Prior knowledge:
Blueprint: H1 2-57, E1 65-75, E2 80-85, E3 90-94, E4 100-103, E5 106-107, E6 118-126, E7 129-137
Parallel strand pairs: 4-7
Antiparallel strand pairs: 1-2, 1-6, 2-3, 4-5, 6-7
Amino acid sequence: MRKSILIFAAGFSLFSLTIGCKNSEKNNQDAENVVENVNETGADAVKTIESDVKELEDTDVVESGTYTGTAEVVDAEQKEIYVRLDNNKTIELYFSNDTELIQNGESVSFDAMERGQRVEVEVEKVNDQLNPQRVTILE
Length: 139
């Protein structure tokens, strides 16, 4: 009888161990799938950012004046925007303390800027640099 109980207990332990290993393998596989998906998503995001940056490396310098376009990149840390003008030129603008930012007729902080907004920019060309005098958020 003892022998039967010991054999049963040993068999049950082996069975439990096998099930535990199979669950562990499944969990490991699930974790590997999640990591793979995150890596693929992250790689896609990096490719998108790299293509945006590469595309914007070739910015244009235009004459002083007023232009209309779309904010393609808004960098709050640098207080910088890239604007794709309606004539398909892209300009890079670094805001200074003197730059006016207007929305709905009122002065607003740089935080009001968002990618995709239509803007009207008044720029002054100094050598090969554009200084934004006024940026009006149109929508």
